[in-house]
Specification:
This is DUF3017 domain-containing protein. Keywords: Membrane, Transmembrane, Transmembrane helix. It comes from Actinomyces ruminicola. By secondary structure, the protein is mainly alpha-helical. The chain has a domain of 74 residues. 8% of the residues are buried.
Length: 123
């Protein structure tokens, strides 16, 4: 007999290996990412977090238009990365085409609206 994951009696399925203590599945991979690529994956997440943290910092320093432009640039870069990376990466939300088109439209919208970021307050 086989279980719901397709493993035969007496053997563990891939899902059980991934849920094992330590979070490592077959081949020493965490979340399907080969061990040699894990530092790059961590570096990418840290770089995106730092880039996102720069947006409110720029805004608080008074560079509102630059902050909106910076955010639009980040969305554009992530859309280009999503276009080149295979399915299943950490920036994937839907299908590749949808993610890229949505990212490009969002970036264009942010670039267009960045002009209005420095308008004076209405009292």
């Amino acid at each position: 007999m086989t279980d719901q994951n397709g493993a035969a009696d007496g053997t563990s399925s891939a899902g059980e290996q991934a849920d094992a203590p330590g979070g490592q599945g077959a081949g020493g991979a965490v979340d399907g990412c080969p061990r040699r690529q894990q530092p790059y994956r961590t570096l990418a997440v840290v770089a995106v977090a730092a880039w996102l943290a720069a947006v409110p910092a720029l805004s608080l320093l008074g560079y509102r238009r630059t902050a909106v432009f910076w955010l639009g640039l980040e969305v554009l870069v992530l859309a280009v990365i999503r276009m080149q990376r295979p399915d299943g990466t950490w920036i994937a939300a839907r299908g590749r085409l949808f993610d890229v088109l949505f990212g490009l439209l969002l970036a264009v919208g942010l670039f267009a609206l960045s002009y209005y970021a420095n308008l004076p307050r209405v009292r």
